[in-house]
Write a structure and sequence with these properties.
With 199 residues, this protein is mainly α. The protein contains eight helices and five strands; from the N terminus they run ββααββααβαααα. The strands form two sheets. The protein has a three-stranded mixed sheet with strand order 3-4-5. A two-stranded antiparallel ribbon has the order 1-2.
């Protein structure tokens, strides 16, 4: 495994660094890389880039809305990420590489609070899944490598300095506190995260 890339920037500028990762070599819920059909759900980097698109005339790409302007590019991007890096409770090789970009985008000064909360919720689900190992695939846990869970927890740990300040939001504090405990105590942290996302 190549080293996890930590973006130097935060907010939308962090997504300008996505090309530092070889996404074409990473497994996700729909295979490896973008595949032959080049569909939106197979493009993890494209899904991450979509987080920062601000187009009021955005055309829905993935079932989150049916007409132009009905849904935002951010909504589409989150929908795609729930499908390709956390699919029905399963995480993948690409998940660990996506985590620092999710955190860096959420940590941006100009990132809207609701977007930040949506990303932290996705990270909570990723954190829960990272506490399992299911190398043959399973409805909950990691797939594609016996190191997916540990690598994802390590990616969360390397993002700790960017996660901590977001805990100033009282709604995010319990989730972030649990995410920060995840690398050292995955089972306990996953139990706490499960209780928080079920509320």
């Amino acid at each position: 495994m190549t080293d996890i890339v930590i973006p130097l920037a935060t907010g939308a500028a962090a997504l300008d660094e996505l090309d530092r990762v070889d996404w074409e070599s990473l497994a996700h819920a729909y295979g490896i890389g973008r595949g032959d059909d080049d569909a939106p759900h197979t493009d993890v980097a494209g899904s991450l880039r979509g987080l920062s698109i601000t187009d009021p005339d955005h055309e829905p790409q993935c079932g989150t809305g049916t007409t132009v302007g009905e849904t935002s590019a951010f909504d589409d991007a989150i929908y795609l990420l729930y499908g390709n890096i956390w699919h029905q409770g399963t995480i993948y090789q690409a998940t660990a590489y996506a985590v620092p970009f999710l955190v860096a985008y959420a940590a941006g000064d100009n990132t809207p609070q609701q977007q930040r909360r949506s990303i932290i919720e996705l990270l909570a689900f990723i954190g829960i899944a990272s506490s399992f190992e299911a190398p043959e695939g399973y409805y909950a846990g990691s797939w594609g490598s016996t190191n997916v869970g540990p690598n994802t927890r390590a990616a969360i740990a390397t993002s700790a300095d960017r996660l901590r300040p977001m805990a100033d939001d009282p709604e995010l504090r319990p989730v972030i506190d649990a995410l920060l405990r995840l690398p050292d105590n995955p089972e306990q942290a996953a139990t706490a995260l499960s209780a928080l996302v079920d509320d």
